[in-house]
Design goal:
mainly beta; Porin; 8 strands; about 50% strand
Length: about 220
Amino acid sequence: MIGLSYAFQFPEGDLKNRFGFNSSTGIHFLNKTKKNWIWGVDWTFTFSPQSQVKESLSLFDSINSPNGNVVDANGEYATLLFYERGWTSTLKFGKLFPIWGQNKNSGICLLTGLGYMQHKIRIEDKFNRTPQLNKEYRKGYDRLSSGLMLSQFVGYLYLGNSRLLNFYAGFEVMAGFTKNRRSFNFDTMEQDTKQRMDVYLGPRIGFILPLYKKMPNDFYYD
């Protein structure tokens, strides 16, 4: 099962102090056995609008002018934009329970996963004329964090007899055991060594292209 997915997620744990809601798009490669065991891998990309970065308000206190703005090389106020960016990569394993559906390839789907999570604050200088926030210096403010992750998904998987409509939908929880990967935060003037618990939760829906090893009718009704 090759597919694309979308999730609308809410942060919990330490993550909710840094970001608000976000979107997540993903691609997956899954295999379902004749006994309805499911295993495979997926990769997701995480992003949010500028309004959902909570930590940006105090990031540049040490380089702000008295009125709270960063001044660029032209002596004007810099236009800075902040976004959440991140990704996850997960090995997944689970089971399909064919309770509802028109064939034995549809039903309640339970998946668990072990993977890796990474996220950061993406800082953009709109006109690229603020030397104190060039590409290298931004790393001192972006809070790049990563670590091992556990995931859980419960939902409904549908693989149609016509093979034209194939999808899944359900609720997903991702819990990452992360830490800051930068050696020094410029704004706090210290290294951040705190262990974090970063949680994403929300609904996910995916669309599937199923590739059968043999014709579906051979095992729909066995």
